[in-house]
Design brief:
5-stranded mixed beta sheet; about 35% helix; 18 strands; about 500 residues; Dna-directed Rna Polymerases I, Ii, And Iii 27 Kd Polypeptide, Chain: A, domain 1; 7-stranded mixed beta sheet; alpha/beta; single chain; Rossmann fold
């Protein structure tokens, strides 16, 4: 492993160039969801306040670690591990005790408690053998030039109050992971005691602030699986396996993809310029949440820096051509998963068909109880157990070869519906003719361009499911009804 420190003494906070993550404490001026008050409020979130008091991982977490280590084993050598959000080093010490090399990353304040100081002293015994290093978040972490076999994200993303910062952390993890490496995601899920604390009056952004008796609150956000997988795919990770034995918690192991869809559209300065935090806010003097003083009221969940908006921004900037074909495929997969999340599930990249001789760019399973994909079964009599997607990052229109390729992969138990995703269509009449040719084999091929994706994403962001259905239904109508009209005209001709 390459281990590099930024200049300065170990343990010293180093600010990023834009000032992002200048502190573990987030000053947020937001609208109140408490029905008893109408004024905006000021909330300070301290992300280090969620660090658990335990000295060692519990039985469940230790079992999860065992599975991850088995998957990541590299010729029986010690793993190079990055423990991001290491807190009081309980997981760092566990991996060091198993003989692995660990770099621990955390804010300086996390190791200033008596428990943190004691754990740090234990970990430093391994430093003499070059098996342990500590990096202070953020500056030393951002500047870190290293690559790892395994990145640990143990209850980290779910305690971060700003969604776009979660994505940026994942992108930094992507850049520090070896091509063959894995990232272990572990977050709480379904804890009844925790869920009882998450009341509407405490809502902030997409989660909740907790800690009635604390001046500085903590943040908690519970994720469902599609949300996790979507964030991870956007940041360059695909699911490798679900780690069993985590009970109700989310334990998922991800592999690194060749490219990250969000690469190049999100950085520290972009988030800092959004001014989601107000560093002029006075520190809290009491546990009670204060009425907001004069100043801008902002949600930490900035819609312009949401995952779908960032993906569209990347799509607009992505050039057509072979060199960016893989990036386009992953971008398209991210957007399609987001658009059809309530209808299509279990995204699989690069599905192999025909005994491994041919590949589909990605496939989703149809679980729709309403909308287009149910209507294609009920009203059109098509088989739609799976929906197939082919991505064509061309400057020109998809040609007959591309349509024939997808048609050959549809049929039978694989399903009779597929999409071609392309950048734009210059000759819509020729493209429509090829779609109608596929209908002769009872195979429906729909075409979505960049403009179509942008329209659909905007409708989704506005929660207009009816509008999404209408756009897609119009595309089906164009193929089916114009095909029927064409047949009718051919019958009447002499």
């Amino acid at each position: 492993m390459i281990r590099v420190f930024t200049p300065g003494a170990e343990g010293k906070d180093v600010m990023t160039a834009a000032g992002l993550w200048r502190s573990s404490r987030y000053p947020l001026r937001v609208e109140s969801y408490d029905p008893a008050r109408s004024e905006p409020i000021e909330v300070w979130i301290d992300v280090t306040g969620s660090a658990p008091p335990h000295d060692t991982p519990g039985k469940v977490l230790a079992g999860v670690f065992g599975d991850a280590i088995e998957v990541c084993g590299v010729k029986k050598r010690p793993l190079d591990v990055l423990d991001l959000g290491a807190g009081k080093l309980r997981n760092t010490l566990y991996f060091l005790g198993l003989g692995h090399n660990v770099d621990a990353v955390e804010y300086e304040t996390s190791q200033q408690t008596p428990q943190g100081q004691a754990a740090l002293q234990c970990a430093r015994r391994f430093k003499k053998k070059n098996r342990f290093r500590r990096y202070v978040f953020p500056g030393e972490f951002v500047a870190l030039d290293a690559d790892y076999d395994l990145v640990l994200l143990i209850n980290v993303i779910n305690i971060m109050p700003v969604p776009c910062e979660r994505l940026l952390v994942l992108l930094h993890c992507y850049r520090k992971l070896r091509p063959s490496g894995r990232l272990l995601w572990f977050t709480q899920y379904g804890d009844q005691a925790q869920n009882k604390l998450c009341m509407e009056a405490y809502r902030i952004g997409d989660g909740y602030f907790l800690g009635e008796t604390n001046n500085y609150k903590t943040f908690f956000r519970q994720f469902v699986v599609p949300e996790i997988d979507s964030m991870m795919l956007g940041c360059g990770f695909a699911l490798d396996r679900i780690v069993r034995g985590a009970h109700k918690n989310q334990a998922r192991l991800y592999r690194r993809l060749p490219t990250a869809p969000l690469d190049g559209v999100l950085d520290e300065r972009t988030i800092e310029e959004a001014a989601l935090c107000d560093w002029t806010m006075a520190p809290p003097a009491l546990p009670a949440v204060a009425v907001a003083a004069d100043g801008p009221v902002r949600s930490p969940d900035d819609p312009e820096l949401s995952l779908p908006k960032l993906l569209l921004r990347r799509l607009r900037d992505l050039p057509a051509g072979r060199d960016s074909a893989t990036a386009y495929e992953y971008l398209a997969a991210c957007l399609i998963e987001y658009l059809f999340r309530d209808h299509l599930v279990n995204l699989q990249l690069q599905e192999t068909t025909y005994q491994g001789r041919e590949r589909i760019d990605f496939v989703l399973t149809n679980s729709a109880r309403s909308g287009l994909f149910k209507n294609l079964v009920d009203s059109h009599g098509l088989r739609v157990p799976y929906v197939h997607f082919e991505c064509k990052n061309y400057g020109g229109d998809p040609k007959n070869t591309e349509f024939q390729q997808l048609r050959a992969r549809l049929g039978g138990r694989k399903g009779e519906v597929g999409f071609i995703l392309c950048r734009r269509v210059h000759d819509p009449r020729s493209v429509l003719a090829r779609q109608q040719d596929a209908l002769d084999d009872d195979k429906l091929v729909l075409v979505l361009t960049d403009d179509d994706l942008e329209t659909l994403v905007d409708l989704k962001l506005n929660e207009d499911e009816g509008g999404i259905h209408d756009v897609l239904d119009d595309k089906v109508r164009e193929v089916v009804l114009k095909k029927a009209a064409k047949r009718s005209r051919s019958r009447r001709s002499p």
